[in-house]
Structure to design on (421 residues):
């Protein structure tokens, strides 16, 4: 209750949930002693794969006995997930105490909730000056609250695609503008560019960062991976090759994220050894990113059928998700709920050979599109139905032996699924 009350107070400090500007966060951090200037950070930008890349790097660093602080957004089940210090998630009392200290120092000045949370992270992170900070930067980076660092160890550029277009002027809702927003303000250190979904995006990134003096590494030019038989994959960069076991996460796209994490850590000369990487990639905790639910209330509803939850919510996420589904020899049933500002028709266009689609309302989200409206947008897809709730949707699907059930379309929906389960 104490934690929720403070968060409620945060929400009263600004009329908007998002207000793209750096002035407020800079002013507050100055009052806090500019803690962002006292940390060693790896910044992670992009559209898709940011959290997965962070979790891969975090798992490897832990195996190397390197202490980390981790800041991600949004959270899936509870806000504590965003605040990891010294390899430990803060509990409710610790988080409430941190929030209260920063709230008092802010002294009711105008600031968004996200900016307050970011200031809280930097304030606490400065207490661990030797730790590696893995920082996920949100939305477009250039005016994101995390973009007040003056120096960092590296910037990771994950896959970039069109998303959050409603935050750009109509005449600037282009891939070029999104790449500019995400990469034009990258710091001069190391820039590691993950695999992009097409040549156009990669060339756009190269053009935007060409005058940045950073050491630059590009997927397929400076590091790469290949899938081998007998349950392993081969990673290679200028330091040599690594024969690695397949990770504990699903989907080939995760090998792209893992490879980007490995390239970054090896470039930074952190004494990461092959055995740290081998063990780490089999201990990745990647909540709601193509996660299999193996037990719980919802799992009991489908008995022996496989249940997956994945927070993919934009067209590129749908593309890589469908690539994974296409690799499976079974019937696939999909339950989908989405936020109103997403590209619904383009998102669903990537789903092929799906036995059934069930649209639902996302509980507790006023900015979600209704399941009925979503069903109407999916009308060109065969076998689409609507159900009001997650449980009703699961019960309405007639699953046969070996059929798979996937719940997707939103990280907010994924959180509701995991909490309900």
């Amino acid at each position: 209750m104490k934690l929720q009350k403070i968060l409620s107070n945060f929400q009263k400090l600004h009329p908007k949930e998002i207000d793209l500007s750096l002035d407020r966060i800079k002013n507050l951090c100055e009052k806090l002693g500019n803690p962002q200037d006292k940390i060693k950070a790896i910044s992670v930008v992009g559209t898709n794969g940011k959290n997965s890349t962070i979790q891969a790097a975090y798992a490897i660093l832990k195996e190397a006995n390197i202490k980390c602080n981790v800041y991600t957004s949004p959270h899936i089940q509870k806000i504590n997930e965003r605040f990891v210090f010294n390899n430990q998630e803060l509990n409710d009392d610790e988080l409430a105490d941190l929030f209260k200290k920063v709230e008092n120092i802010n002294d009711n000045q105008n600031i968004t909730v996200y900016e307050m949370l970011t200031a809280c992270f930097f304030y606490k992170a400065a207490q661990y000056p030797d730790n590696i900070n893995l920082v996920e930067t949100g939305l477009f980076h250039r005016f994101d609250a995390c973009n007040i660092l003056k120096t960092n160890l590296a910037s990771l550029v994950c896959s970039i695609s069109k998303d959050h277009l409603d935050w750009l002027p109509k005449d600037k809702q282009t891939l070029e503008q999104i790449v500019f927003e995400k990469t034009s303000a990258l710091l001069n250190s190391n820039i590691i560019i993950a695999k992009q979904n097409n040549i156009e995006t990669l060339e756009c990134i190269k053009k935007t960062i060409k005058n940045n003096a950073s050491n630059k590494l590009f997927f397929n030019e400076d590091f790469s991976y290949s899938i081998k038989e007998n349950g392993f994959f081969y990673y290679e960069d200028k330091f040599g090759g690594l024969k690695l076991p397949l990770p504990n996460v699903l989907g080939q796209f995760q090998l792209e994220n893992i490879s980007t994490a490995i390239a970054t850590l090896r470039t930074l000369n952190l004494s990461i050894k092959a055995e740290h990487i081998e063990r780490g990639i089999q201990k990745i905790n990647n909540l709601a990113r193509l996660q299999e639910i193996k037990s719980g209330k919802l799992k009991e509803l489908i008995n022996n059928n496989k249940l997956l939850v994945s927070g993919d919510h934009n067209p590129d996420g749908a593309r890589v998700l469908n690539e994974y589904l296409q690799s499976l020899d079974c019937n696939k049933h999909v339950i989908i709920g989405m936020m109103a500002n997403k590209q619904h028709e383009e998102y669903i266009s990537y789903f092929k050979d799906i036995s059934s689609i069930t649209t639902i309302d996302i509980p507790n989200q006023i900015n979600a599109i209704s399941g009925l409206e979503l069903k109407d947008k999916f009308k060109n897809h065969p076998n689409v139905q609507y159900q009001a709730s997650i449980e009703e949707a699961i019960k309405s699907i007639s699953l046969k032996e070996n059929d798979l059930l996937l719940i997707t379309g939103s990280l907010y929906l994924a959180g509701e699924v995991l909490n309900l389960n």
Q: What stands out?
A: The first strand starts at residue 40 and ends at 45. Residues 92-106 form the longest helix (15 residues). The mean pLDDT is 95. Residues 328 and 404 are 9 Å apart (CA to CA).
